[in-house]
Amino acid sequence: MRGFGSLISDIRRRVPDARVLEGVPMKEHTSFRIGGEAPVMFVPERPETLAELCAALSDLGVRPLVTGNGTNLLIEDGELEFPVIKTMCGDDNAHLSGDAEITAPAGILLSRLAVFALQNGLTGFEFAHGIPGTLGGAVSMDAGAYGGEMKDVVTSTLAFDPERGVYEVRKEEHDFSYRHSVFSDTDSVILSSVISLERGDADAVKARMDELSEKRRASQPLDMPSAGSTFKRPKGGYAAAMIDGAGLKGCSVGGAQVSPKHAGFIVNKGGASFDDVMRLIEIVQERVFREYGAELEPEVKIIRRRWGTE
Ligand SMILES: Cc1cc2nc3c(=O)[nH]c(=O)nc-3n(C[C@H](O)[C@H](O)[C@H](O)COP(=O)(O)OP(=O)(O)OC[C@H]3O[C@@H](n4cnc5c(N)ncnc54)[C@H](O)[C@@H]3O)c2cc1C
Question: What ligand 1 atom has the least distance to the C-alpha of 132?
Fold first, then answer.
């Protein structure tokens, strides 16, 4: 790869609207508070800048790590060998693009989008209010909670792909399935999405959002750094119930711990390293397999310092 100095000057010249941060500790940009140093982080100041930035990096043959709010990431410690794009930026307004349809940029927080839906008397997005990620991260992961999923509401997405440039993905082409979409295993970057909701009663929408927030507060370790549920739901059961049943609640490796409040979450109880979490993941996988014959697959995205080593 080219030196980052010349990459930075190229991007500054070609995409002046992108903020450029050098030597960025990723632990400050992930909810796990874990991760090594990115040589450079590009933050598009406006949603339109994201497409220009992706095109410029693609022309330069550079493959970035695209992050939203970093709430589903486990990043290796040490110096990362690739630049990072952080799509979450201040200028992230959603707008109504139809009677019950909202178009929003990838970097908007789901909580903000849910409040926008509420303010416009729209129902169907309450499930997403408490998920701490961005729209782009949620579409990529088919995020979901309390019976709702992105696949229920997303009707179209604009994305950038190094081979195709900017292109549109329509409803069924998203290929959504549990915690997976057509974007999950590609270098495509989601630029914006359209969600289709229904007209509803604003008081009822607000009441449902409050009810779900309370459920989260009561059951999840929201006061501890984590990346949410560590594992996907295995066939024939729930990861948290199996981990609890295997006696692993509270089990620790270094600063990483199976949350005593919710066994589905690994939390960082202070100074956890990437290796601590990886070792704890292995222990949990081995013990659950021994007890239940179930293979737990990580839901968190594990990012190594070098591309292609996972
Ligand atoms: C306390 C807590 C509770 C959570 N609860 C839930 C829950 O109820 N349900 C749930 O599904 N998840 C939950 N999560 C996990 C997480 O919030 C979701 O997966 C969320 O969708 C991730 O969004 P993000 O913006 O943080 O993405 P990131 O963590 O930044 O990235 C996640 C993945 O999406 C990709 N990505 C991000 N933006 C883009 C883009 N614009 N284009 C292409 N790819 C992109 C990244 O490359 C990465 O592969 C929880 C996490 C925490 C910490």
Answer: 17
Q: Which of ligand 1's atoms lies nearest the C-alpha of 190?
A: 42
| pLDDT tens, position by position, 248-295 | 999 999 999 999 999 999 999 999 999 999 999 999 999 999 999 999
Q: Is 299 noted as a catalytic residue in this protein?
A: yes
3-state secondary structure the chain: CCCHHHHHHHHHHHCCCEEEEEEEEHHHCCCCCCCCEEEEEEEECCHHHHHHHHHHHHHCCCCCEEECCCCCEEECCCECCCCEEECCCCCCCCEEEECCEEEEECCCEHHHHHHHHHHCCEECCHHHCCCCCEHHHHHHHCCEECCEEHHHCEEEEEEEECCCEEEEEEHHHHCCECCECCCCCCCCEEEEEEEECEECCHHHHHHHHHHHHHHHHHHCCCCCCEEEECECCCCCCCHHHHHHHCCCCCCEECCEEECCCCCCEEEECCCCCHHHHHHHHHHHHHHHHHHHCCCCCECCEEECCCCCCC
Tell how far the Cα of 33 is from the centroid of ligand 1, in angstroms. 15
Active-site residue flag, 52: no
What the chain holds in terms of domains, given with CATH numbers, is 4-86 (3.30.43.10), 95-205 (3.30.465.10), 221-303 (3.90.78.10)
CA 87 to ligand 1 center in whole angstroms: 12
pTM of the complete model beyond 0.85: yes
